[in-house]
From TrEMBL:
Also involved in hydrogenase metallocenter assembly, probably by participating in the nickel insertion step. This function in hydrogenase biosynthesis requires chaperone activity and the presence of the metal-binding domain, but not PPIase activity. Residues 5-85 form the PPIase FKBP-type domain. It comes from Parafannyhessea umbonata. Keywords: Chaperone, Cytoplasm, Isomerase, Rotamase. It comes from the Bacteria. It catalyses: [protein]-peptidylproline (omega=180) = [protein]-peptidylproline (omega=0). This is Peptidyl-prolyl cis-trans isomerase.
Length: 143
């Protein structure tokens, strides 16, 4: 029985291949709710939950194309210091900033290079290019 189009609640633990935990609804003691296969989740996570039954736990391994995609070099953007707001002039490599898309949506970025002339920002998702592992427990399904 498919959960496609249904509201579901899950607990999950996400790890990288080296065992590093990057996220966990269990640690927050807050299940994640979403509509299955509605594009709210990364593709591989959605697919795993689609055919699960309440009470079932699944362990899935997702390659980057089923998760946040491959890293793209074209998503590293350089901005001349003359275009950078004054309050950002002391920013350091590794810091996170929030940009705005032409549609007004927030776009997270990571500072990857700073010179006196320019700042380079990486607009890739921080999990892009990484294989992800999830332990997913389906808690409930609403029709």
């Amino acid at each position: 029985m498919s959960n496609e189009g249904k509201k579901v609640k899950v607990h999950y633990v996400g790890t990288l291949d080296d065992g590093t935990k990057f996220d966990s609804s269990r640690d927050r003691n807050e299940p994640l709710g979403f509509t299955c296969m509605a594009g709210q989740m990364i593709a591989g996570f959605d697919k795993a939950v689609r055919d699960m039954e309440v009470g079932q736990t699944a362990n899935v391994h997702l390659e980057p194309e089923e998760a946040y995609g491959e890293r793209r070099e074209d998503l590293i953007q350089e901005f001349p210091m003359s275009q950078v707001p004054e309050q950002m002039h002391g920013i350091k490599v590794g810091e996170k900033v929030m940009l705005q898309s032409p549609q007004g949506l927030p776009v997270p970025a990571t500072v990857c290079k700073v010179t006196p002339e320019a700042i380079s920002l990486d607009l890739n998702h921080e999990m892009a290019g990484k294989a992800l592992n999830f332990e997913i427990e389906l808690l409930e399904v609403e029709d």
